[in-house]
Amino acid sequence: MPPFDLPEGDPFGTHNLPYGVFSLPGSDPARRVGVRLGDHVLDVGKAAYALGSPYAPLLAQGSLNPLLAAGRTAWSDVRRALTAWVTVPAHQEAVADLFHPLSAVTLHLPFEVADYVDFYASENHARNVGQIFRPDAADSLTPNWKHLPIGYHGRSGTVVVSGTDVVRPSGQRKAPADPAPVFGPSVRLDIEAEVGFVVGVPSRMGEPVALGDFREHVFGLCLLNDWSARDIQAWEYVPLGPFLGKSFATSVSAWITPLDALDEARVAPPERTHPLLPYLDDSGSGTEPGGYDLRISVAINGHVVSEPPFSTMYWTAAQQLAHMTVNGASLRTGDLYGSGTVSGPTERERGSLLELTWNGRDPLELPDGKRTFLEDGDVVTLSAWAPGPGGVRVGLGEVTGRVVSSS
Ligand code: CA
């Protein structure tokens, strides 16, 4: 049965309509673009052809990339059409047979990831990390932190879809007291609860993208888990930053929520405490406010350990986009950038085990035992919702992954 009679307030109702890519079991393994409604997925390419949509060639694809590249007018037109298909009775009839239960499909990485960048935009996270690793420093923030959104280039080829197992990485580590580095599986495997932004429209090399053009380039967002091996990271990161401690896997949700589904969740970022250079200054009228009220939840083996609030992020996605292109670096369709670990001001709002256990000093009490860092077999799930129209929630697709032994 097509899911046209969803319970009132379903977070994946007709107000949401996130995009993904799925395949069916059996003889037809082709990947198709799908849109989620309740616990079903609509075969959007087939629906578009059934209803004579001019966008059918963009949608009857095995990846979201053609739609991503098509730009804002197409994004808005397609979303308007989709809304009609699932709400207007005559259209509902035409697409009713094109839904599949989520339980009967396989979800895939929904777009081809081009470049991957990860930021560090939560002031609470940055201060916690500063206090843990530089306890003697006068300021827990580095001198540049309030002047630019700090980021690094990650490894796009190891971005995986929710549900993919994560093999515990091996590498070098050396605690300060150790006489020499040792090699082996990480003993401090961690998560970072983040939001990922998906670029649709590319830009030309040499031409920075202005703050106000954020919505022309960015299609939507997803949840992102930046798996992190703290012991490998701690030994390797000076002076060039994260490398093998991060590059083994980054998980993203199977559903990309279009920015157009999140209009009611837009919020102003926290007050700026330092003046910003013009290309980052979002205080004036006509600039992109760029903050989003997303309520994230972090669960280990089904037990919620933290609820990081995305609205507390100091740097916005629009500022991050402006910063990563201000030197003339170009955008490509499928570029993905992570917000950085989302941590709120209280202990139960921290987005990493590093912070939740204060670098292992204060273990978490879980129903299945104590945790400092992740154990083999642990399943980490990030989920989130945002305020939607009329008080209804907009659900974000979860991102989950299980840690498996390296042997
Ligand atoms: Ca990160």
Automatic annotation (TrEMBL):
Mg(2+) binds at residues 226, 246, 250. The active site is at 125 (proton acceptor). It comes from Streptomyces curacoi. GO terms for biological process: homogentisate catabolic process; L-phenylalanine catabolic process; L-tyrosine catabolic process. It holds the Pfam family FAA_hydrolase. SUPFAM superfamilies: FAH (SSF56529), Fumarylacetoacetate hydrolase, FAH, N-terminal domain (SSF63433). Its EC number is 3.7.1.2. Keywords: Calcium, Hydrolase, Magnesium, Metal-binding, Phenylalanine catabolism, Tyrosine catabolism. It is an enzyme of class 3 (hydrolase). This is fumarylacetoacetase. Pathway: Amino-acid degradation; L-phenylalanine degradation; acetoacetate and fumarate from L-phenylalanine: step 6/6. Substrate binds at residues 120, 134, 233, 237, 341. Residues 117-404 form the Fumarylacetoacetase-like C-terminal domain. GO terms for molecular function: fumarylacetoacetase activity; metal ion binding. It comes from the Bacteria. Signal peptide: none annotated.
